[in-house]
Amino acid sequence: MSNSSLIETLYESIGVNPHSLRQDPNIAHIEIHHNKVLGVHLVPGLEVNARETKNGIDAKLLVKKDTVIEKPVQMCFGMIPETGLQEIILDIELEENARAGIFAHCTFPFARQIRHEMDAVIKVGPGAQYAYFERHIHGGEGGVVVVPKSRVEVCEGARYQTDFELIRGRVGEIQMDVEVTGMTKSVTEVTARVSAIKDDRISIRETAHLVGEYARGVLTTNIALQDTARAEIYNTLTAHAAYARGHVDCKEIVKGNAVAKAVPIVEVYHPKAHVTHEAAIGSVDSKQLDTLMSRGLNEEDATNLIIEGLLGVPLLSNG
Amino acid sequence: MTILQLQNVSLSLGGKKILHELSVDFWQGHIHALIGLNGAGKSTTANVIMGISGYTDFDGDILFEGASIKGLPVYERARRGITLAWQEPARFEGLSVRRFIQSGAKDKSEERVRAVLEDVGLEPDEYIHRAVDKTLSGGERKRIELAGILAMEPKLVLMDEPDSGIDIEALERIFQALQKLRENRVTVILITHSLTVLRQAEHAFLLCCGHLVDKGSTDKIARYFENKCIPCLHPNPEKLVAEGSRVQ
């Protein structure tokens, strides 16, 4: 399959028209299939150096000092075949006062036995703002193992938002691990939203260390489980400095024979820091169900609407 | 014309009888009030009519437009035209006001969603994309719930304590929406212990300890309730009512 055909197929699987994307020169985009960089379009202030490896790519993304990229950078990672391994190594840096967002689409539409690993090191420089939205679209077989790992440094006065979404297609298996260190007056928001069915397996570890004064952090995990799916969520938030503020929020809706486990860990090492946590696991709230059924929705439609709300809307709009 | 008829409805919960042979007719296109102190059985009656889980195993029958709805699930009753506005509306994390209103609307267009938000005094641009969650005040949630009900175009609305937990402005907007329901010939049953809410109705039914004590014009029931129920002096009104005496 040619590069252009692969690009078409990748975008088609995520419901995005690549031609409309290309028509706007202000939208940077990068397409990667397995270990091939199929296409790159950059905008001023954004530098990308990508190296193809045996099973993936090793890329460095740099947003130069004071650069403001108005429209989210579109990244498309994927594999069209049914089997294979994709290893993505990312080194992302936003220099001082830079601002950028990335909308990453990860698509494995025909997966039967695919492993996708991502190992990211991210530095959000002083006063910089970085929003990363990662949407996974899988096929209906559940034959994907997703292993995303990030280590993030959020410098003084910087803002880091990340939102991981896997609500279309079967999860298969996910082993997510995000660890963020927030400096003085930094803001960290880490969100994961996943819907699992059948024998899908979810393991999520979200960790934030608020080491600077006035650092703020929120870890949010919203999960919907059905059939015999299982989830284990470990949210850890530590506060080490005065006026650091954080909150951990984990909600899981469980249906059928699914099993959910949530372990919120909060640690406070300074008397003027403050961290809270909230975890709720259970079936669909009966009052929500009764309310929607009293509008004429049957139980299944009402449940689906409640789950749709819980799994929410993305951080960045597409395009 | 009668739209809803309770026929000797009795209900026990946890071994205690909560409703005692209630027989009440509600007229199409009229605003009624079920009034009584806390524990009178008002909300229980509303839940029985709506068919809420835990309130379905009752004696007697309920007829809606001449047909029994006993045994029908909540959504079937809703599809026939009955709905309930809750005393404290549920929160739906992440669910937008638009999706919430559209969920039960006959006309699911955005124009219709905007129109019903305006009907309850909420600026559509400000609310349509917000979530129906804890960021909204109790009064805002009540008005959004009512907007959803207006979009549903029901035949009968049960409104449980419409003045609970809201400010005067929100209550005024709810009363205006009530008038809109009246203009559209929708039957309304107000569940209340408030004389202010009671006065919005045309007919009233006074409940005490699960018994129907009196019925009639709003003025008549308001006087009775104000003079003899609010300052209730009976240490055991349930016994008095059960023996067939009116609470004096």
Task: Describe the protein in words.
The complex is a heterodimer of chains A (319) and B (248). By secondary structure, chain A is mainly β. Chain A is built from four helices and 19 strands. In chain A, a hairpin with a 2-residue loop joins strand 1 and strand 2 (36-41). The two termini of chain A are 26 Å apart. The model of chain A is unreliable at 314-319 (pLDDT under 50). By secondary structure, chain B is α/β, with parallel strands linked by helices. Helices cover 37% and strands 29% of the residues of chain B. Chain B has helices spanning 42-50, 74-80, 97-104, 110-119, 124-127, 138-152, 168-183, 195-198, 218-229, 237-242, and strands spanning 2-13, 16-27, 31-35, 59-64, 67-68, 82-85, 92-96, 131-132, 156-160, 187-192, 203-208, 211-217. In chain B, the strands form three sheets. Chain B has a six-stranded mixed β-sheet with strand order 6-9-10-3-11-12, with helices on both faces. In chain B, a hairpin with a 2-residue loop joins strand 4 and strand 5 (67-68). Chain A binds chain B through residues 222, 251, 285-288, 290-299, 302, 305-306, 308-313, and chain B through 50, 52-53, 73-75, 77-79, 82-84, 86, 89-96, 99, 103-104, 131-132, 145, 148-149, 152.
Q: Strand sequence of the main sheet of chain B, in spatial order?
A: 6-9-10-3-11-12
Sheet of most strands of chain B = 6 strands, mixed
The share of residues in extended strands of chain A comes to over 45%
Q: Over the alpha carbons, how many angstroms does the gyration radius of chain B reach?
A: 18 Å
Helix content of chain B: 25-40%
Assign the structural class of chain A, choosing from mainly alpha, mainly beta, alpha/beta, alpha+beta, or little secondary structure.
mainly beta
Query: What's the oligomerization state?
Result: heterodimer
**Number of DSSP helical runs of chain B:** 10
Overall SS class of chain B: alpha/beta
Helix content of chain A: 10-25%
